[in-house]
Amino acid sequence: MSRMSGVEGLRANCSQFTLEGEPFRILGGSVHYFRVPRAYWEDRLLKMKACGLNTLTTYVPWNLHEPERGLFSFQGQLDLRAYLSLAAELGLWVVLRPGPYICAEWDLGGLPSWLLRDKNMQLRTTYPGFMLAVNSYFDKLIPLIKHFMFGEGGPIIAVQVENEYGSYAKDDKYMAFVKNCLLSRGVQELLLTSDNWEGLRGGGVDGALKTVNLQRLSFGAIQHLADMQPQKPLMVMEYWSGWFDVWGEHHHIFPAEDMLAVVSEILERGVSLNLYMFHGGSTFGFMNGAMDFGSYKSQVSSYDYDAPLSEAGDCTTKYQLLRNVFARYRSEPLPDVPPPQKRSSHQPAAIQQHLSLWDSLQFADKPFRSERPVNMENLPFNNDNGQSFGYTLYETTITSGGTLDSKNNVRDRALVFVDRQSVGTLDYRTQELTLPDGKGARTLSLLVENCGRVNYGKGLDEQRKGLVGDILLNQVPLRDFTICCLDMKPSFIKRLVFNHWKSVQQNPKNSVPGFFQTRLHVGGIATDTFLRLPGWGKGVVFVNGQNLGRHWFIGPQQFLYLPGPWLRNGENQIIVFEEHAARENIVFAENADHGKTINVYKLPFCSLL
């Protein structure tokens, strides 16, 4: 996007935006680079442009870019500069939403878990330890992207200050701090804030244009915004095109006709609009967030969102209807829609080998010994940054049976074993188990899973994982733990691969929890597919070392999206970590199965927040 020097960027000085001195309306869509295989970035953005949108919005996930304090990653799948370059090349403007907090149904709202090593940490405030970490992060991030600002010839026309702070609003100095973080590092583009209608009053900051997030117009949010900012352009920063899903409930859908009616009215009012999501993609790995408004609910790995582009990048009915509407607001004919990506089903892959959890421990990092339980984030792993994701195994010795009481100190779910025999599960609902009597000393093991940190609301402040306090046996706190980190990083999976597994003839059903391995043969160019595990229980799937996400029989998600670019011609290795029930096969399908559905428009509004 070349332009003459001195040309004005996005301005909000009157009732409509101007860009380069001319009236401009943002017709935007959210596509998160970190949720889309890099090989498909161009396909998704071309489809965005062909739908009639002119602006890309994306969050920036701090916890992916700085997984350990001072260790930054902006390469490969996380190459934000390449993503911004692609947007510019395709003629899309960009609204950047760098956080530090992003929500996004993303673990801890994008904040790194190592922040929680500080027992006094106060997230999203001017607490010195938090400000120090934010400044360090922005010292790295902003210089990387400064070249992509409009004023330097780049596509970024606006930058968001934090995200939905009005729904949190713990510190009246915090938003000014974040704004200054941007300004002091040379960000000169238009600044925005973004809140739902209830948070509009508390989430703004002087010098930044307020925008609103919504799905319905019946609450008068746009008029509320107009009254707060007379003679300023109006923008819906997040028009929720669908909704996200949590384990154990139904798949949320938002019918196309209901969505279209609201979008049409927003456009008729002259309001700028960003579709959240335009394309949801996938929350690969362990990165899903969770809800907690009185009860904890973890989110699924699919981020399909019932968006105009499906998780696999298909143009849905919503896409076609929106394209017809947006075409009326564009002065030039829309580009042709790129063809759909090819997909394949494959013959079922028979499980060939297995390795029990207990046999795999030799490939994990050296265990840590502690008198008391230690939460994941404060364990001395990963260069003393703690453990962020996955599972943690806590083991101690017991000399009797009786009542095991978690005191609600399990975060979030623990498989419990005595001498490696399963005796049950502890979680938020089940906090007591009866342990069998036995002779002599026995080993009590708790395999604790971080099912995802809360990403929205006041629960953000209580997101340490693992065992966060004492576990009692017959009212006596257990002591002298051996603690093993099972974060299942690529290095661990790689060590597993090159070691001795047992053949399936040695009864894999008795090897749970454990790892199960098979091969998928692909002839020719690999295409997308959906991996399914009928009859299996709960766990995680790795393909060629890539963590696809979690599977759980309770649904609603009944598949894992397997992108073609992550497969190779020939043999592909599949490893399933299974907690409960292994089966003989893994199957593959051309289409997703989201399970039972529920219309999000018919739910109470408060249930969406």
What does this entry show, briefly?
With 609 residues, the chain is an alpha+beta fold. It is built from eleven helices and 36 strands.
Summarize the biggest pleated sheet: 8 strands, parallel, barrel
Number of strands: 36
- Termini gap: 38 Å
Helix content: 10-25%
- Rounded to the nearest angstrom, the radius of gyration is 25 Å
Low-pLDDT sequence parts: none
Query: What strand line-up does the widest sheet have?
Result: 3-4-5-6-7-8-9-11
Q: Indicate the overall shape.
A: globular
Describe this protein with a few key phrases.
609 residues, alpha+beta, TIM Barrel, Jelly Rolls, 3 domains, 8-stranded parallel β-barrel, 6-stranded antiparallel β-sheet, globular
List the helices and strands and how they pair.
Layout: E1 18-19, E2 22-23, E3 27-31, H1 41-50, E4 55-59, H2 62-65, H3 80-89, E5 93-97, H4 128-145, E6 156-160, H5 174-183, E7 190-196, H6 200-203, E8 209-214, H7 221-228, E9 235-240, E10 251-253, H8 256-268, E11 272-279, E12 290-292, E13 296-298, H9 317-327, E14 349-350, E15 353-356, H10 357-360, E16 368-370, E17 391-398, E18 402-405, E19 410-411, E20 413-418, E21 421-426, E22 432-435, E23 442-449, E24 466-467, E25 472-473, E26 476-477, E27 481-486, H11 490-497, E28 502-503, E29 514-522, E30 529-532, E31 538-543, E32 546-552, E33 560-562, E34 570-578, E35 585-589, E36 597-599
Parallel strand pairs: 3-4, 3-11, 4-5, 5-6, 6-7, 7-8, 8-9, 9-11, 10-36
Antiparallel strand pairs: 1-2, 12-13, 14-35, 15-28, 15-29, 16-27, 17-23, 17-27, 18-22, 18-25, 19-24, 20-21, 20-23, 25-26, 29-34, 30-33, 30-35, 31-32, 31-34
